[in-house]
Amino acid sequence: MRNRFERQLITPILEHLADPAGYGLDPVKGLGVVVPHRAQRADLQEEVPILTLIDPVTGAGTVSAVDTVERFQGGERTVILVGATESDREYLLASGKFLMDPRRLTVALSRAKRKMVLVAARSVFELFSADEETFTNSQLWKNLLRRTCTVPLWTGERGGRRVEVWGNSPTTPWEV
């Protein structure tokens, strides 16, 4: 359940948000990354070590900015980045009750105090299912896109794939 493309896409964002010369967000209260799978969490922790605090005595990670939605319940961060780049439609349909669960989405989105960044595959927003529960839950994702991501900010290519960045009003500056 590792997604190399997602890692390559969000690593520069995370590095900039965590970099003391950038926004300097720490993994304790500043920056959080919500991913659906533990393997993706481990992949990002390895790729972006600044997201994990290491105990100098034991060498073990004590706090990580990257975790699954279940482990973020009750915790908040200044900025939350949510990874939802599953692009395989069949997998989304098979795991719809897990990935599209409205409680998971609510927890992921509500952890951010100031800013939430969602990195998602178009397939997440275009999912159509004959299963009534999955259909209803997918409508939440569609509404999220339609109602909050209304302004195209950038379109280009990363790793041979088309990437679009959408947001709210680009005239409203964001400060941490």
Write the SSE topology.
Blueprint: H1 4-18, E1 31-35, H2 38-47, E2 52-54, E3 61-64, E4 66-68, H3 69-72, E5 77-84, H4 89-94, H5 96-99, H6 102-110, E6 112-120, H7 122-126, H8 132-148, E7 151-158, E8 161-167
Helical proportion, percent range: 25-40%
Query: CATH-wise, what's the superfamily?
Result: P-loop containing nucleotide triphosphate hydrolases
The gross shape turns out to be globular
Q: Look at the structure and give the CATH class.
A: Alpha Beta
Structural class from helices and strands?
alpha/beta
Biggest β-sheet: strands ordered side by side in the sheet = 4-1-5-6
**How many alpha or pi helices?**
8
Q: Find the count of extended strands (DSSP E, 2+ residues).
A: 8
Instruction: Predict the CATH topology.
Output: Rossmann fold
- How widely separated are the two ends? 32 Å
Structure description:
This protein is of the alpha/beta class and 176 residues long. The chain has one domain: P-loop containing nucleotide triphosphate hydrolases (Rossmann fold). The protein is built from 8 helices and 8 strands. The chain has a 4-stranded parallel sheet with strand order 4-1-5-6, sandwiched between helices. It has a two-stranded antiparallel sheet with strand order 2-3. It has a two-stranded antiparallel ribbon with strand order 7-8. The longest helix has 17 residues. The protein is globular.
